[in-house]
């Protein structure tokens, strides 16, 4: 089979030889390690590889920060304009603007590799968070609070 | 590649335009609103904004420094 000719990171690992037993948890068997996050569907697939170092954006932190900013905007509008139809309409309009960039998809596949370092940055999330803070500050400045 | 570039974000002028438009569109008189906000509320909002600004700074700097150390 052509499979036999393919280099595999763990081919040289024999059971009992401690040089391959570095304590790392390795899932092989043609399996893949997948990491999927809620909002920005990030997939990192590592196959037949060893010594792969992955550094990715902390999406959970980003998502909670996004939610915090959205809640803050709604709270500021509610405190200043009041929980009125007008206030709610403003919040709805802001939400419409914020909805435009909610999804990011990136896939990284590492196959048959050794000692690879991967760093991914979710640019959309970063821009989104910046934009939310800008909106919050703009609203607050407009109402002479800052 | 695009992933090498730092996100520039949206210019503040556009955000201001957007917020001005949203207020105008919904018939909100900012002068009227300003006069109704008490000092306590203002302080609470200032604290909130300051706290969130710090969190955003920390988040963005962490992402950038990770990138820089990689080069």
Task: Furnish the topology, listing elements before pairings.
The complex is a heterodimer of chains A (146) and B (71).
Chain A: E1 40-47, E2 50-55, H1 59-80, H2 85-98, E3 104-111, E4 114-119, H3 123-142
Parallel strand pairs in A: 1-3, 2-4
Helix pairs in contact in A: 1-2, 1-3
Chain B: H1 12-25, H2 30-36, H3 39-70
Short structural description:
Chain A has 146 residues and is an alpha/beta fold. Chain A has helices spanning 59-80, 85-98, 123-142; strands at 40-47, 50-55, 104-111, 114-119.
What does this structure look like?
- The complex is a heterodimer of chains A (146) and B (71).
- With 146 residues, chain A is of the alpha/beta class.
- Chain A has one domain (2-142).
- Chain A contains three helices and four strands, in the order E-E-H-H-E-E-H.
- In chain A, the strands form two sheets. In chain A, strands 1-3 form a two-stranded parallel ribbon. In chain A, strands 2-4 form a two-stranded parallel sheet.
- In chain A, helix 1 (59-80) runs parallel beside helix 3.
- The longest helix of chain A has 22 residues, at 59-80.
- Chain A is rod-shaped.
- Chain B has one domain.
- By secondary structure, chain B is mainly alpha-helical.
- The relative contact order of chain B is 0.06.
- At the A-B interface, helix 1, helix 2 and helix 3 of A face helix 1, helix 2 and helix 3 of B.
For the residues shown, what is the average pLDDT of chain B? 80
Helical run tally of chain B: 3
Describe the largest sheet of chain A: 2 strands, parallel
- The termini of chain B sit apart by 14 Å
What share of residues are in beta strands of chain B?
under 5%
DSSP strand count of chain B: 0
* SSE ordering of chain A: EEHHEEH
Low-confidence stretches of chain A: 23-38
The general outline of chain B is flat
Main sheet: strand order of chain A: 1-3
The domain count of chain B comes to 1
Helix/strand class of chain B = mainly alpha
> Which blocks of ≥5 consecutive residues of chain B have pLDDT under 50?
1-6
Count of strand segments of chain A? 4
The succession of helices and strands of chain B, N to C, reads: HHH
What is the global morphology of chain A? rod-shaped
Structural class of chain A: alpha/beta
Largest interface: A-B, 42 and 40 residues
* Helix share bin of chain A: 25-40%
**Structural Rg of chain A:** 23 Å
Count of individual helical segments of chain A: 3
